[in-house]
Automatic annotation (TrEMBL):
<keyword id="KW-0479">Metal-binding</keyword>
<protein>
    <recommendedName>
        <fullName>carbonic anhydrase</fullName>
        <ecNumber>4.2.1.1</ecNumber>
    </recommendedName>
</protein>
<dbReference type="InterPro" id="IPR001765">
    <property type="entry name" value="Carbonic_anhydrase"/>
</dbReference>
<comment type="function">
    <text>Catalyzes the reversible hydration of carbon dioxide to form bicarbonate.</text>
</comment>
<comment type="similarity">
    <text>Belongs to the beta-class carbonic anhydrase family.</text>
</comment>
<dbReference type="InterPro" id="IPR036874">
    <property type="entry name" value="Carbonic_anhydrase_sf"/>
</dbReference>
<keyword id="KW-0862">Zinc</keyword>
<dbReference type="Pfam" id="PF00484">
    <property type="entry name" value="Pro_CA"/>
</dbReference>
Length: 164
């Protein structure tokens, strides 16, 4: 039961100087971001945003999945979202290996068959980004209620470039 002790201790220190109370759950800058789980991405800081400013949905690859769309619908209608950024990134594992390669790697790590596991690998990252942005723009509950952009984040320079 001690596997999380370091983090629990850090949390107590965090709580001692906690100054983030009193917020509602709205996106105070009106921003929602769909991006990758990659640890090189700091979604708020890369956009000059702060705590409370944005709704953030992360998954492998920064894909517009059904769950991402659920989050965006809630964001647009209940949480103050007016602009949506879909942000995959350079050197993403989900765009640089094939589904088969990932299954082999994960299977080797797990020591059991992983051929049944899907990972949603992307073959053409920019084409996929454009398709994902269309999914948001054409969603019947989002449509033109929010402005949607597709961006690629360069993990080596910190720069975003817009592609959709
Ligand atoms: Zn990634």
């Amino acid at each position: 039961m001690h596997e999380f002790d370091d983090l629990m201790e850090a949390n107590r220190a965090f709580a001692e100087s906690f100054d983030l109370g009193g917020f509602d759950g709205k996106a105070h800058a009106g921003i929602a971001i769909v991006t990758c789980m990659d640890s090189r991405i700091d979604p708020l800081r890369m956009l000059g945003l702060e705590h409370g400013d944005a709704k953030i949905f992360r998954n492998p690859g920064g894909r517009v999945t059904p769950q991402a769309l659920e989050a965006l619908v809630l964001g647009v209608h209940l949480l103050g979202v007016e602009r949506i950024l879909v942000v995959p990134h350079t050197r993403c594992a989900m765009a640089s290996a094939s589904e088969a390669e990932l299954r082999v790697k994960v299977g080797a790590s797990a020591g059991v068959d992983a051929s049944w596991q899907s990972f949603g690998v992307v073959t053409d990252q920019l084409e996929q980004l454009r398709e994902d942005v269309v999914k948001v723009r054409t969603h019947p509950l989002i449509g033109d209620r929010a402005t949607v952009g597709g961006f690629l984040y360069d993990v080596d320079t910190g720069l975003l470039s817009q592609h959709a």
